[in-house]
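User: Can you predict the 3D structure for this chain?
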Amino acid sequence: MNIFRLSGDMTHLASVLVLLLKIHTIKSCAGISLKTQELYALVFATRYLDIFTDYISFYNTIMKLIFLGSSFSIVWYMRRHKIVRRSYDKDQDTFRHYFLVLPCLIFALVINEKFTFKEVMWTFSLYLEAVAILPQLILLQRTRNIDNLTGQYVFLLGAYRALYILNWIYRYFTEPHYVHWIPWIAGLVQTLLYADFFYYYFHSWKNNKKLQLPA
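Assistant: Here is the predicted structure, written as structure tokens:
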């Protein structure tokens, strides 16, 4: 554990808490893509297959349980909660997210570090997480006006991945033989997808204006 990984984990956790705060207290999921949330639920379900078989640490297990539980809870809220689901903008959230799943699975079957079921699923989760934010970013571009909690949620998600890249760089220089190029490439792709959003987020913050993305 180093400061970059801990910061990344806490930033990731903060993004989930911000989204749950919006859904639970305001009873609204306006501006949130159900497609992205379903992809994240699939990411964590396939990444944490080892949760009950390989014990690493108490911290590791708790974080896995939090991300698994929160991701499926958010999907349930948006699909089933009688009040929250009314605010879901289904007409704007039309990205065919299932088109992302099959290519990521094929890549994982072809390009992986070890051809075992858990390893392939772990690699698949990395590839899928790299592009899972796409439906959310497209929804924000369509709706344009973004409330503060939604903007903070997306910003924290992007910051979490950027911090994890710093964690990998740190481990590369401090741990012998630490070379895992698949997470590095997937993380870099994911961070680059946020670049446009980061620009407009900081621009709105600097000028104290409401966050808007170009159509």
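The chain has a mean pLDDT of 91. The CA atoms of residues 203 and 209 lie 8 Å apart.
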